[in-house]
Design a protein that fits this description.
With 205 residues, the protein is an alpha+beta fold. The chain is 28% helix and 31% strand. The relative contact order is 0.16. The N terminus is likely disordered.
Length: 205
Amino acid sequence: MRTVRTALLTVAAAGLAVTALAPAPAAAAPAPAPAAPKFLSAAQLPASPTPWTAGPVRTGAPQEGSVCTAGIAPAAGTRYRDFRTELDTNARQTITVAATAARAEKLAADLHHALATCLDRMKEQDPGLEGEAFYHGRIGIEDGAHLHSIDTSHPEVGSTDIGLYSVGRDGRAVTVVEWGQMGELDGTPLEGFRKTTRTAVAKLY
């Protein structure tokens, strides 16, 4: 009996030793940070007689240009990219990632309102400016996008400019796309810009 008891104690001790030597379960790896929203490429802008050139992605809110939406998006969480052609046509995409989807929704609404009221504010600052603004409707992509155009002229200077603008959202990410050149609304790539807006929102996430 003593021999059996000794054997059992020996087996138990060996089991405890194995348990002590067994490696502890590895800690769960931290969840990877969500990928940053993607920007448009030059090839995804509306067709142009001369090729588009894409600038680098820059951090923060633009310091100049973007007259209609300046000062609305916070610098934190905002990046932008400029595009240009050889025929004085330019474009810009700005992306802001808000802390929550609710804040992104409010930001998108504020930007939409800013675009809708931009011409009136421009006329207040420059009484000699003339123009027309149009809302071209909602685009059904992700959490939605809105398309605007502003056609301006300055009779004293003899200049005429057209701008196409859109704002869209996907979750916490909000993007504004701007396109501008000399000329009038007739003949501008409105449908091409609509497609560009759909692509811009779809690429966010």
